[in-house]
Amino acid sequence: EAQVTQNPRYLITVTGKKLTVTCSQNMNHEYMSWYRQDPGLGLRQIYYSMNVEVTDKGDVPEGYKVSRKEKRNFPLILESPSPNQTSLYFCASSGLYLLSNEQFFGPGTRLTVL
Amino acid sequence: DAKTTQPPSMDCAEGRAANLPCNHSTISGNEYVYWYRQIHSQGPQYIIHGLKNNETNEMASLIITEDRKSSTLILPHATLRDTAVYYCICTTDSWGKLQFGAGTQVVVTP
Fold first, then answer.
1. Contact B21, B8 (CB under 8 A)
2. Contact in structure between A43 and A34 (CB atoms under 8 Å)
3. Distance CA B43, CA B100 (A)
4. Which of A44, B35, B52, B85 could disulfide-link to B47, CB 3.0 to 4.6 Å?
5. In this predicted model, what pLDDT tens digit does every residue of A87-109 receive, in sequence order?
6. Shortest Cα distance, chain B CAs vs residue A83, angstroms
């Protein structure tokens, strides 16, 4: 089944404790990105990647890092999480062959930083 | 990308057609209209997109006015599982960031 998976789905952590949220897709998609969703602010893009070893900032990249060492994986790294990074996070992917902006989203990761 | 305006909420009876309006009066000639939906904090799901012509797929129909300043997403026979927030997005990009607005909360009732 074609899908985007994220792990963990839920995470409660403390300020300053480094964490990684994994994202994997099995559709051989070139494009992958991360969004965060907050009440009243909607979905905002954090980082995106056009292909392996190619990443770029979205609208709200501060406090986050990403890497794209393999085509299928696009982990989101919070080196020193802070309470304002408490949010619902979504990974998305899209294949350039689609010639459209049809994106496939993961199920989400709900992060709480205390 | 053109700004879109959608009603904040609407109700629909199960089995009836749901017609979701979207205004995009500043849309440019090469901007597509995309529709996504998000069911209760799940990941957004692509529904349909179009440029000028009306489009239909297994999920919905998209009607774009001739002047392209507005569009309507039609769910032909709404079910309880169609309860979700529906987002109308205009973009020229065939890839890249999707600019999600507030969307329309659709509640399908029995």
1. no
2. no
3. 13
4. B35
5. 999 999 999 877 788 999 999 99
6. 20
